[in-house]
User: Fold this.
Amino acid sequence: MSCLILKGLHSTSNKSSVYFGTNSLNRHSFLRSDPTFIANAIISPYSKYIFYKKLSPYVDIEQNKLFTLNYNTIGLSNRKIIDDWIKNNELKSIKIHELPLIHFLGLDVSKKNQSFKYNEYSGIPYFAIDITNHNSLISQIELQNPNLKTLSTRELINKHIGYKESNIFAQGRMFLQWLSSTKYCQGCGSKTIPINAGSELLCSSSKEFNCPVKNSSNPSNASHPRIDPVLITCVLNSNRDKVLFTRSSQLKKYYTNIAGFIEPAETIEEAVKREVWEESGLYVSQVKIIKSQPWPYPANLMIGCIGIVDSNNNNVENQDFNLNHDKELIEAKWVKIGKLKEIITYGKENEDSIIRVDGELNGIPNEKTIAYQLFKHVVNTYNL
Assistant:
């Protein structure tokens, strides 16, 4: 379904926005299946193509913005690639595999004066294009634009991409990752065909195969992109004056929250209780869902929660943790909320995207993470 255009949709204030989740475009998902709209949008001089190589975006690191071209600036020899894609997208042809993966991201509807128009819809069309296997495009882009880099790490993305473009990058990466990793049908093993401007997959099998995916009337993650829900929980003691700091063997440089995948037939609340106990040995009695964040590594939705421990089942003051269940954590400790406020207020971000107070060995994740947003929520809500 398409997103609603809300007042303040294009606000990019760091105070209220969610990195990777600041809604910059109206996706107009109902127009993805309209080949006339897609054909006109992708050749519009107002369109913007965002390029990826191995799922890493091309970014102008001097201007700190996503690099874009359009049909007019992509070069005469490369326009044929776009023309062929338009034809094969309309025909839903298997030959589309010979071309770059392309996904229609949506319209930037904030610019009304100079924009693409189609019926009652208008805006700047955005497309994500994977050029990993297309050397002509790679050569043109890299030779003519020496300030470009493909950003392959979250730290580099944090440094060079702002809030508004972070959502555009994330949507493109998540769709292109799904398209590039789902080349064969889960039902029968036949090749899949990206259709509807790279938003769905169609099994290429004939009727004789009787493919259960192709013949099903119910949508599934075999033909539509899949998002994996992940909980992330900031744990408070029963008095609500201390917060749990944890470090894992994978993320040794900073303290963060407890996180894990939500399993089949599990509610968010029950998943929080299970993960907190499995990782720390603590029993949680209350769970509050606070906010969420898309996480394009590869395709997760982080669901941020607050968990309050049960004073009847935890020896909280003695820090009676048990880290030996699944052995993910190397350290867990209670920290007064006042200390957390000090880190948030006076801490400085280093090159590893960690906020740390001078003299402290470890810090917390930066403000572009939901872990930081949960910590900040705790300070604003419980630091009385």
